[in-house]
Structures are given as C-alpha cells and as structure tokens.
Amino acid sequence: MRSLTSTLDCIGVGTGRNVSVLRDLFGFFRGRLPDDPTGAAVTVSLQAQLRALAGRHVHLNVISVGLDTLDATGQRDADNKIDYAIHRTRTIYATVSLGVGRVEHYAISAADSAGRDDLGSEGEADDLSDEWSVPNDGIDAFVVRNISDTDFVGISPRPGDCDKGDKDDGLVAGEINRGAEAFSRTFAHEIGHYLNLPHNHGDDCPDTTAEQNNLMAQTRCAISARTSVLLTGAQGTTMRGRCQTRSGCP
Amino acid sequence: MSTPEPRRPDGEEAPDQLPSGLDRDAVVALLRDRRQPEARLALKTLSLRFPDLAEAQARSIVADRGTPEALRAVAATELGYHVGPDNERELVRALRDAPPTVLKHVARSLGRIGGADALAALERATGPAASSPALRFARALIAYRLGRDDHRIDPREIAAVTEPIDAEPTPLELRDVPESAVEAVRDAITRELPATPVAARGSVRFRCGNSLHWVLLAQELGDDPAQRLARAPMVAGVVLKFRECPGHWSLDEYLLTNGGGTGVVDLVGVRDSGIVVHAGSVRVDGAAVSFELGANNPPYSRPLELGGVVEQVTGSIAFRRAVVGRSRGALGRTRTPQRLEVVPD
Known about the structure:
The complex is a heterodimer.
Chain A: H1 4-10, H2 21-25, H3 46-53, E1 57-65, H4 72-94, E2 99-108, E3 118-119, H5 122-131, E4 139-144, E5 146-147, E6 171-175, H6 180-194, H7 209-212, H8 233-240
Parallel strand pairs in A: 1-2, 1-4, 3-5, 4-6
Helix pairs in contact in A: 4-6
Chain B: H1 24-29, H2 37-49, H3 51-63, H4 69-79, H5 85-97, H6 100-113, H7 116-124, H8 133-146, E1 170-171, E2 175-176, H9 179-184, H10 186-192, E3 204-208, E4 211-217, H11 225-231, E5 233-243, E6 248-258, E7 264-270, E8 276-285, E9 288-296, E10 304-310, E11 317-324, H12 330-333, E12 338-339
Antiparallel strand pairs in B: 1-11, 2-3, 3-4, 4-5, 5-6, 6-7, 7-8, 8-9, 9-10, 10-11
Helix pairs in contact in B: 2-3, 2-4, 3-4, 3-5, 4-6, 5-6, 5-7, 6-8, 7-8
C-alpha cells in the first residue's frame, strides 16, 4: 500500500505544506469528523481510505451556493451536513469498491449567484451548473440554500459529461435545509445518476424491500433516508466504468 | 428585511422526510403551524401526492404575511403550476409586499399562469425588483401569451456572444414523436405549461448532450400557423427536456416569435429564468412557414444551425438542416467559484 504522502500526491492534494488527514484525505471541510444526526459515533479508517484509493475512485468539488446568508449556527450546521454527506457517500460507495478521493470545497455567495441559491425550477438548476464550473477533474456537486420548487430535491444528468464545459457537467446535490440524513442520501443518489445509474423503478415505486432500500430508489419510494442506501454489484460496475472515475493509486 | 426562520432547540434535527404512509389529513395537519419545518415538507408532500389540496394550501400560505419566507416561496412556486383567477389574484397581492426572496418566485409563477391583470400589476411594480430578471421575464412571457408587442425580447441580446459552428458539426438526429407519447405525459406537460397549451401532433424529438428533448408547437398555431405567426408575438412552442432525476419532462425553452406585420419575424429560445439561449427567424410567405435558428449563447447552449418548415397540411415540423457543434466559448464564459480554505472550528 502507498504511503499517505504518495497517495495525497496521487489524488492531486499538494503536500508541500501542513496537511490534515481529515481535511485533505477524507475531504471534511471542518477538518474533523462530522456529527451523525442520530448521535452515533462516526469513525473513519485511514487504512480503509488508502485501500479505497488504490482502486477506482472519484474526486468531488462541493460547491455551496448562498450559504453565506445563514447565521453562524446555520453555517456550522451546513458545514456539518456537507461533511456528513461526504462521509455517507464514501461509506455507501465503498460497498461497491468505489472510493471518494479528493474533495475540494467551493462557495458562490448569494449575491454572486443571481438568485440561484434558491432554485425555483429545474431550468434554473441548469442555469447554475452552466454558469459555474471548477476546471479540474472533480465532479461539480452544487449544494444550494433552498429549493422552492416542489418537483425535485436534487437534480442530475445521467450520465454526467466527461468534459467540463459541456452541457451536462454538473449536478445539484440537494438543498441544505433538509435534515442531514435525507440530504446525505440525496447527495449520494444524485452523484449516482451522474455516474450513469438510473432509478431502479419506473413511475410506480418498487415492490420489494430490497429495491426500496436501494440508493437509486427515489426519495418518495425509499423506506428510510438512513438505510435505503444499498447498491448492487451491477450498479457498482456501471459507476466504476464511468469516465469520471480515476485509476487507483497503486 | 427578511424574517429569520424559526429555529429548533439546539441539537434537534429537522425531520428528513414525512413517512410515506401519512394520509392526506395527517399531511394537512402538519401545515397548521406554519412556523415548524414540517410545514414546508408537508406542502411539498401535498404537491407530490395530492396536488389539488396543495393548490388551496399554497394560496392560503401566500396570503399569510406571517409565514416563514422559505415556506411562502414554496407556496408561491406551487401556485405557478395551477391556472386560476384566485391564484393569480393572490400572487398579484403578494407582488406588492413579498420580500425579495419570495418575490422572485411570485413573479415566475405570475409569468406562468397570469393574464392581463397580472401583466398590469407587473408593469406597475416599482423599486429595484421591478427591473429584476424574474419580473422582466414574467412581463414578457405574459405579453407573448396575450399577443402584445410591448415586451418583446430582442434576439440581438446574444448577437455579440454567438459562436460559429465547428468545421465538422454533428448532425442532430431528429425524429417524430408519436402523439400517443405526448398524450401519455399530458398531465405533466400541463403542470409545467399551465397557460400554454401545446399540440401533440407535429412534435419532434432529439438528443442534446445526454438528455432527450421534445419540440412541441403551441395549440394556438392551429391550422393556419402562417397567419397566426405573422399577426402578433406569441409563444409558438416549447422545448421540453426529460430529467432523469426527478424523472419527468420539464421546460427547457420557450420558443417565442415577434410577429407583427412583416414577412420575417424574430424567433428566440428563452429559459424560464429569462435567459435567451437561441435566436433566429421565422419567414412567413403566404401560407408557407420556414424557420432558421443559428445564434447561441454560451455557456447555456452550443453552436447550432437549424432550419426547416412547418408543414401546412399536418402542422408538423420538418427540418432541412440540423447540426450542432462544440462550444469553444462556454468554458471562457463559465465562472469559477471561490475555493474555500481551512476554517478552524
């Protein structure tokens, strides 16, 4: 297994400075473990993360939109929800041998967002991802302050484009004012679409418990935001095969 | 000034989602205390499962000035899915006193469902918000629906940024959409376009990027599209996009024509945020209608060249040329968000 330094170099995290394992390797914005909404202890494993990055993995750019308008408590809650969503996504994707590698954090202020911090339509979600992009090999995942449209809780193309600057090169991973568990499931679900996973059902919700507990069941069909996060081997194969996934750091 | 949202005691989580087994009365009951976060979830749940009830609840919430802004914004957005004089009246009232965070949604919904009264109210609006993109486009959209020519969108808005097509453009594969396919999702289309009836016949589909699109013509074009297109501005059609998640058809662009007396009229493709993404023209020659679309607005759209006719007998769109290129300007016009560095806790 590679050393921590060589793995950080491999995923594009500069090591010519003091690095934080929790921030730079695990991608937690606050540089510490997120709080679990149930109060359960959150644990991470350095060895497991290094092993995950030896296999296929994705890099993420988490772009918060308009969260500067939240008060100090709201911003702390938001930071924790985002870190928890990163932790949950890593845990969920690990079940199909897909790692979450470099996570960079970006912000668009409410003033700069031209009102896109509160999405009122799916078209406005397109505006947001068209207008903003991070020029690197990470998936651009926007987290907005609010979604006022009743028709969606997150939105993603399937699949996302391989190149930045194309039509479908970003996704809206959710609105920050949902509960941490639901937000984190939507976050992982939308990135799943970006990695070419369809819903696992049609207009009607699936019949079986196993299907309802799949990550790609729509929110309205999922039994639980916490436990309906399963992925099948075939879904993992699809995700690992997408152009956004990086080769392992041997 | 915006009203702060009520906060729950420290450590108490907002609910994640309502149990799927809740019946309608139980969901409505959660709306009684509008200051609780469950109320916003309840309205979204009503919209999804009991849209008729959602409409009445949304109207009541928009009328309630004491409602938290986030809930009122959801309610205002919901009303934009339901045409009705009561909804229009309530949105017009909200136009006068809604805070900026709600006003955008009020204006958008008025644009979607409003008529002459709504347009008059939008024209009377004063203050900085009156010139906001949301209000400007709401005025324009209603004016196009009413056939008025005083809020025309100028296709030259994107003339300075439009890109020439590549040396090797990709043909856009266009196919007819069976009427039955349109009718099968008619409810969803009507929700998305509550005041803009579109015809099932004569539609075409294409794939742009990774998404499937339909072009649908306005019912109002009727059996004599040439006469209608030449007479006055109108919403001549729409482009719908299938969104894999959430899993339905929704608006991609309105196709607006600036008719009014000449043989060649402007054609603009506009998103519901008011951003002009495509521009071209429609030529009306007797009963014959031809069109071309060649201007694009990066990063919202790729360079393209579309040209064709609207068949007189069938009312169908027949393309003579349909190619799309890669945008060289998109990345140059895309902004990079600010990188956040370590924030000590």
